[in-house]
Amino acid sequence: MKIRSRTWLIAALMVVVLGLLALRWLAHPDRVAAMILSRAGTALGLEITASGASEYRLFGTPMLVVRDVVAKQRDAATPLLRAKRIYLTLPWSTIRAGGAELTVERIELDAPQLDIPALQRWLATRPPSETKIPTLTDGLQVDDGRVTGEGWSIEALDLELPTLYPQRRVHAQASGRLIAGDVRLPFDVHAVLIKPAIGAGFGLAGQLSVESGDWKLPTKPVLGGRLHSGTDGVGLDRMKLAATARYVAGDTDLPFVLGFAGPLRYREGKLIVAPAGAVVRGRDPVPHLNAHGRIEYGAALSLQLAGAIAEWPVSWPALPAPIGASTSPLPFALQYAGKPDFSDVAALHLQRDKTQFDGRFRLPEITAWIDAGTAGSPLPPLDGRMSTPALEVSGAQLRGVEIEIDDPAIAEPVVQ
Question: Where do the DSSP E strands lie in 231-300?
Fold first, then answer.
């Protein structure tokens, strides 16, 4: 009996000592956080560290807070994620399931920085597996986030996702500003997804503005489509965009409506709509036009559009007779490749009946020339050639007319 009592006493003392050691270890949240992040990093093939103060709670709903977080691929120079603070609460059922159940109560991220190229490189290394949509019972909140792509970034991103369930409708509110070169796009939008799955319907509405230099284009867009992911990139199938907009530059304020339609793709740093359909409607001097073609937007903007202007706007410089007397639409072909603010050279082919014009111009200079009216130069700031069967000048009728306008400031022709 004495031996057995002594054995139990020793065992009890060992349990007490081990408990005290465990409590001492648990009293250092940084150690607990480092262990959790190390295990998470091993599972994901990442190095995840947190150099700031950490907190955790085990009673009630488990909670973990880590600060100054950096996540990157091993030996990678650029982290795919940084964050000043990550807050996470999740039920015990998720912890006991060991990843089989992905239910999280709430996630908060303060000043996260997500690098899209680094993220894509990491995703390319991951083994193919069944995608599991996590459940967020109390949602996701992002404050002052930053997303960086190739030639663009989203700054001051605030995102609120109230809840997320695999088979339920998803609502999100987002605001921030997209920056690409000299172009800025501040936005404040609300998005709806029928369910978080490829092929599900997606909708977006709100306010955004395209701003560059001394002009801006505030718009109220309504966008819809179906989520797409494939070898051609991610994006939307059957995308439709309608927007009311205003072109504002100095004293100029031109309201109009526009629409785009076509498959939307994002791949290798480029946003592409091809084949694209476009419609513009507005009051004079905004032309009514329909067009189709291809639109690419990344570090630069590329447009290849063909269509027709319904009629020559009244407030545009008058066309000479008999061209101006015609009521025929004006088929056109427009090509542009350059800065997103349209300050580079564009190529235009324009036709009315048998009169044709081929020229090159810069949109800001043409806009300024139109605004100048009779106070400006009688010749537009462009480089081009016009041919027409007949032309009336000061009462004289000319036949087989060809007119060339040379502007040394216009660069070489855009490659067709």
Answer: 233-249, 252-267, 270-282, 289-297
Give which of 264, 316, 261 is closest to 288, Cα–Cα.
316
Query: How far is residue 149's CA from residue 114's CA, in Å, rounded to a whole number?
Result: 9
Distances (CA, A) of 408 to 365, 384, 402, 404: 14, 11, 20, 13
Please state, in angstroms and rounded to a whole number, the distance separating the CA atoms of residues 341 and 364.
9
Q: Whole-prediction pTM value?
A: 0.82
Q: Does residue 188 or residue 41 have the better pLDDT?
A: 188
Q: What is residue 413's DSSP assignment?
A: P
Lookup: tokens for 196: 């978080």
Number of H helices, E strands in the chain: 5, 24
Sign of CA dihedral 370, 372, 373, 378: negative
Give the number of other Cβ atoms within 10 Å of residue 17's Cβ.
Answer: 10
- Listing DSSP states for 35-91 in one string gives HHHHHHHHHHT-EEEE-S--EEE-SSS-EEEEEEEEEE-TT-SS-SEEEEEEEEE--
Answer for the pair 288, 280: CB distance below 8 angstroms, yes or no.
yes
pLDDT digits (tens, 9 = 90+) for 267-306: 888 889 999 999 999 988 889 999 999 999 887 889 999 9
Angle between helices 2-26 and 29-44 (to 10 degrees): 80
The domains of the chain are located at 28-166
Q: Where are the alpha helices (DSSP H) in 71-162?
A: 92-97, 116-125
Contacts of 281 (CB under 8 A, 6+ apart): 256, 257, 258, 288
Q: What is the pLDDT of residue 99?
A: 56
**Span 369-393, mean pLDDT?**
78
Residue range 46-98, pLDDT digits in tens:
888 888 777 877 777 888 888 999 999 988 889 999 999 989 888 877 766 65
Measured between alpha carbons, how far is 312 from 316 in angstroms, rounded to an integer?
Answer: 7
Cβ-based neighbours of 221, under 8 Å, separated by 6 or more: 189, 204, 205, 206, 208, 241, 242, 243
Q: How far apart are CA 87 and CA 246, in angstroms?
A: 41
For the segment 2-20, the average pLDDT, to the nearest whole number, is: 47
Strands 106-110 and 140-148: parallel
Q: Look at 87-91, 170-174, 218-222 and tell me which has the smallest mean pLDDT.
A: 87-91
